[in-house]
Design goal:
This protein is α/β, with parallel strands linked by helices. The chain is built from 23 helices and 15 strands. Strand 2, helix 3 and strand 3 form a beta-alpha-beta unit. The radius of gyration is 24 Å and the shape is globular.
């Protein structure tokens, strides 16, 4: 049986293999969404389909909504052509439970998948039509940290950002340029209200989105493409809002094991693909069961009943505390730690790392002893309970096919949030305890060692995609730092570690540089040095 909209009518087949179907009329939802869209999502990756689309599906199943989600992409158009359209925009969600059982649900509420490709006129015409519709309430985003970036680590504008600023709203090439153009169409149509809701793992994600969009709009005003009234509209929270959010759900790359399991159930047309940009995708998503989405309740044009779909709605301060708890302390820095050392030590599965005493001690001691002490309790989530679930249930889940190589992607974009904020908290709140930090400096040294692309056995390996990796590899080379080098790195890291864009703080001002230098020296002493250094650090 193929995965297709037509085949959903064979309810007996899907019931026989325990696959939950949408509890609404898909054609009716698509028609109503086409006529009166309420929700657009930018970025059609795994977490969108496994979680955000599911929030809307829950509302549809309960009769609390009658429109679905229109997804659009600004970069990886191939994903839509190979993973969405051949399967009528359907996705199978595979809930991977720690006991080995798997739950299956088909998501049917993605009504259109549109590439924001300005070479395809009909796509842009449709997106402009959606932008001009007063019924639209929100655009949500999962585009990763780099999707918001207009500048490199040295603060220079990317060429793509310069292009958008100099050429106006007619054919932008960045995601932020597209959103600015979308808002321009909405402004011209009637200056209708809208919420732009970043759901990425960025600290103060709404502000990052707003800052980048307004920077492009400022350039358009300066260059005569728009006037100041458009800028005022995009900066008026009563009309265009940029709420903060915290999202959490581990959604690894599609697993061949899960693909084989689905095929064995009798679903015949599924396959995984790797796009030309290196994205792994499939018409199914394998994900853990735990999920959290905390959203600032700031929607000037109204919103769906998101709470009934599993979202926690609250105020900005509480979102901030939840986000800091998760992104800077109780999950993401631990993930990055496992990613860096997992790649160096040859691991290919996060859950296997949690069976390694040194790695388990690394994230456990870092979480409880170095991260948790500077976390504010958000009250709606308990930090210690959250951390305990991460360490004892989520990371060790052997049925979740997550890899350190996936988590290591774009590490340079993640460090300022995952570690910089915690270091800054010590610097401003408990400076006397900065010198007690041992494991956070170890991970920073570990990342520099990782960038040398030589594992603990002395074998070359391919580092994960990262827009700043080449820059830092060149910086290490220029500083005379290489695997097998003679002498110490002491005094050679000052320039590298001063980069506030990547580390979130000038590490030279923290007193941690000597610790990082010592660790890097130890990590580079030869084969087996990574394991030896890690074991010694977590044993103390």
């Amino acid at each position: 049986m193929d995965l297709s909209k037509a085949n959903l009518s064979n309810k007996e087949f899907w019931k026989s293999i325990d696959v939950v179907l949408p509890q609404y009329d898909i054609d009716e939802v698509r028609a109503k969404t086409a006529a009166k869209p309420t929700w657009v999502h930018v970025g059609g990756g795994n977490i969108f389909r496994a979680f955000i689309a599911r929030v809307n599906q829950r509302l549809l199943n309960q009769g609390l909504a009658d429109t679905g989600i229109i997804v659009c992409g600004t970069q990886d158009y191939e994903n839509f052509e190979r993973v969405y359209k051949p399967f009528d925009n359907l996705t199978i969600i595979c809930d991977l439970k720690p006991d080995g059982n798997t739950g299956y649900e088909i998501i049917g509420n993605i009504t259109e998948a549109i590439a924001a490709n300005y070479d395809i006129k009909e796509n842009i015409d449709r997106l402009n039509e959606i932008a001009s519709d007063p019924s639209l309430q929100m655009i949500s985003f999962t585009i990763t940290e780099k999707g918001y970036a207009l500048r490199d680590a040295d603060g220079r504008l990317f060429d793509s950002a310069v292009h958008d600023m100099e050429n106006g709203p007619s054919a932008p090439v960045t995601c932020m340029g597209f959103i600015a153009s979308f808002l321009f169409e909405r402004f011209k149509a009637g200056a209708y209200s809208l919420a732009l809701v970043s759901m990425d793992n960025c600290s103060h994600n709404g502000d990052k989105l707003k800052s980048s969009v307004l920077e492009i709009i400022d350039a358009w005003v300066e260059n005569g493409f728009a006037d100041a009234s458009f800028r005022a509209y995009a900066d008026d929270p009563s009309r265009i809002a940029y709420p903060w959010t915290m999202i959490d759900k581990i959604t690894p790359r599609p697993s061949d094991e899960i693909l084989n399991k689905l095929t064995g159930l009798g679903i015949s047309n599924l396959k995984s693909v790797k796009t030309t940009t290196g994205v792994f995708a499939a018409p199914f998503v394998n994900a853990e069961v735990p999920e959290y989405l905390v959203v600032e309740d700031l929607f000037p044009n109204g919103r769906p009943d998101l709470a009934k779909g599993g979202v926690i709605l609250t105020d900005r301060d509480t979102v901030d505390k939840c986000e800091r708890m998760k992104v800077t302390a109780c999950l993401n820095p631990l993930h990055t730690s496992l990613a860096v050392f997992g790649c160096l030590l040859g691991f290919t599965k996060i859950s296997d790392e949690m069976n390694d005493e040194d790695l388990k001690s690394l994230v456990t001691k870092m979480g409880y002893n170095e991260c948790l002490p500077v976390v504010c309790d958000p009250k709606i989530l308990n930090p210690e309970a959250f951390l305990k679930q991460v360490l004892e249930e989520r990371f060790p889940n052997p049925f979740l096919p997550d890899t350190p190589q996936r988590i290591a992607t774009d590490t340079s974009q993640k460090l300022p949030i995952r570690f910089g904020i915690t270091i800054n908290s010590y610097l401003t709140e408990q400076p006397e305890k900065l010198k007690e930090l041992k494991l956070i400096p170890l991970v920073i040294a570990g990342w520099l060692r990782y960038l040398l692309a030589v594992d603990d056995n002395g074998n070359a390996f391919e580092i994960s995609p990262d827009p700043m990796a080449g820059f830092f590899q060149d910086e290490l080379t220029a500083a005379g730092i290489s695997y097998g080098m003679e002498g110490s790195v002491s005094g050679k890291l000052s320039c590298i570690l001063s980069n506030e864009t990547v580390f979130g703080v000038d590490l030279n001002k923290t007193g941690l540089v000597p610790v990082i230098e010592q660790y890097l020296d130890e990590l580079m002493e030869g084969n087996g040095a990574v394991r030896k250094t890690l074991h010694s650090a977590v044993a103390n």
